Amino acid sequence: MAKKLVNVFMIDDHPAMIEGYKSILAFNNLDIDINTTVAYTCEAAYNIIFDIKNKSYFDFAFIDLKLPCFSEKNIENGLDLAILIKENLINCKIIMITSHAEAIDLDAMERNLAPNGILVKSDFTADEFLIAFENIYNNQIYKSKSVIESLAAFQDISKNKE
Amino acid sequence: MGIIKRHYPIFKKALNTIKNAETVPNKLYYVAKNQYDIGCVFLQTKHYIAAKNNFSEGLKFKNNYKTNPALYAALLNHFAYSEFKIDSNKGLEDLLIALKISENNNDQIGIIKSNSYLAEFYLDKKDTLKALDHNKVAHEYANKTGNTNALLRTLNFYTKVEPEQALIHTQKQIELLNKIRAKEHASQNKLARIEFETSELNTEKETLLNQQKIIVIIFSIILSFGILLYTILYQRAKHRDVVFRQQQQASNEEIYKLMLNNQEEIEQIRKKIKQNIALDLHDNILNRLASTRLNLYAISRRQDDETIKKAIVHVESIRNIEQEIRAFSHELYNDSAYNKSNFKTILEELFNTQKESHPILCTINMVYCDAMNNLSPEIKMHLYRIIQEAFNNINKHSKATEMQLFLTLKNNLLTLRITDNGVGFDLKKRKNGIGLKNMKIRTETMFGELNINSEISQGTSIFVKVKV
């Protein structure tokens, strides 16, 4: 049986990270072949997003939060890009990768984007990365442990304020 | 001699006063004299009995015989005369005694009077010879003493006794009267002249007084103007002083603020640099480590040659990361070193300006230590200004060829010494110059000690010690 092909869009300003992701995904248990498209800047990502032939091309997008911005189109970080992807690329699951677990940022992410997954760089191991991928592939939502904790704490506070 | 009747009440009052007065020297004399005066008034008004009483009262003071023989004789004389007037057979004995007393005492008035009365007595007794005799004596004495009244009386008596000689006597009287009148005129003229001169003097006095007043007024006006002027000038000077001090204060504050701002800016920049470093560290290095870790994951799943080769490459890349961290840490270290030398830079700049713009040979011996960075901005500013002021003085006044500055902070004691080999100055005179005063105030504000030593042509040294 031919392996299923999954098209993954990876956006990160550190090529080494992307190499890492690629190498990990190669070890997935879903028997999937991964086809990766990369972008190192917001501009590059923007161009790919708005390339008409990519409209329903991508199944997954891994987006680093911190990226060199594309000021002409008012795209300052990965979040802006993610929103664009949500609007423009059909059936593309979005996973945000961030180095911070700041509750406010995470909350903003949740509210504005509601991504399929949030991962914290310093937190996740390679195994976790795979698990996240596999869960999301199976239409689940995956969040890093520290993300869950931060969000919970934040929502507690905001509830109390109300 | 012409006692006027209207003096009588005064005499009476005087008599009472005298009688009641306790401690009056010569009281007896005065009482007797008073009695005599009153008696004479009565005589004139022909109240002979009353007169006689008064005279006898006066005679009671026997002391007068010794102490005031003239008065005693007069009293006795008039007493006798009063008796004669009352009873024409009486009085002769006393009249003669009175005459004797007057002759013994050479009392010319008494002699005249006694002789006159005796003449009158003898005329009454129709003893014309004796009467004329006594009158002659009286007349002679009157002539001798120039007693015009007595002269008139004696001449009048002559007329009465020797009517045949009346014409001559009357002529003599008229002569005398004219003389008297002339004298009167003369004295009236004299009086008038004196009056006139007096009024002239008065007017002169008034003018002078006025002049004096004017002078005094003018003088006091000038004086008050002077005082006013002085006060105004003094106040102005004080005001200027106050304004100057205020300006000083203001500029001190400004410098202080600037230093603070400067510090703040520096802090901000430092913070920014630190943040940049932190960010860099975070993004760059963290990411690389993370990616290395992720890439090495492959080994846990496959151990074939290719995977191992790739893995080794990644292990190598860890060394790069180490190098970057080393670079960062060096940057951090040097950065912090840079920040702390701010005050040092400022001082060094001051020294350099001094060295470059003045021909004086300037030796700087500053042992700068970290603790100096931690001095309060105020102390830094005061120190800076003191050094600046000292430099100014040396450049402007000292005509020195060499100067030295010594600055250390040791055992919490900040020491500054500035010396020059210039002309020096007189400490007593110049101690309160504004520049030196400023130094003093600044040192005191820092609770420090300031010592200035200077001798003419032996240079100057300024010594500042502050406990910090």
Keywords:
heterodimer; A: 162 residues; alpha/beta; Rossmann fold; six-stranded parallel beta sheet; 6 helices; 6 strands; 43% helix; globular; B: 468 residues; alpha+beta; Serine Threonine Protein Phosphatase 5, Tetratricopeptide repeat; Heat Shock Protein 90; 3 domains; five-stranded mixed beta sheet; 16 helices; 5 strands; rod-shaped
What would your notes on this structure say?
The complex is a heterodimer of chains A (162) and B (468). Chain A is of the alpha/beta class. Chain A has one domain (4-156): Rossmann fold, CATH 3.40.50.2300. Chain A is 43% helix and 20% strand. Chain A is built from six helices and six strands, in the order E-H-E-H-E-H-E-H-E-H-E-H. Chain A has helices at 15-25, 42-49, 78-88, 103-112, 126-137, 145-161, and strands spanning 4-11, 32-39, 60-64, 93-98, 117-120, 142-143. In chain A, strands 2-1-3-4-5-6 form a six-stranded parallel sheet, sandwiched between helices. The radius of gyration of chain A is 16 Å and the shape is globular. Chain A starts with a strand and ends with a helix. The relative contact order of chain A is 0.15. The mean pLDDT of chain A is 86. Chain B has 16 helices and five strands. The radius of gyration of chain B is 64 Å and the shape is rod-shaped. Chain B has three domains: 5-194, Alpha Horseshoe (Serine Threonine Protein Phosphatase 5, Tetratricopeptide repeat); 257-340; 342-467, Heat Shock Protein 90 (2-Layer Sandwich), CATH 3.30.565. In chain B, strands 1-2-3-5-4 form a five-stranded mixed sheet, covered by helices on one side. Chain B is an alpha+beta fold and 468 residues long. Chain B has helices at residues 8-20, 27-44, 48-59, 63-67, 69-86, 92-104, 108-124, 128-145, 148-161, 166-301, 305-340, 342-357, 370-373, 377-398, 427-430, 434-445, and strands at residues 361-366, 402-410, 413-420, 449-454, 460-467. The mean pLDDT of chain B is 85. The A-B interface holds A 14, 16-17, 19-21, 23-24, 26-27, 66, 99, 121-122, 125-127, 129 and B 282-283, 286-288, 290-295, 297-298, 300-302, 310, 317.
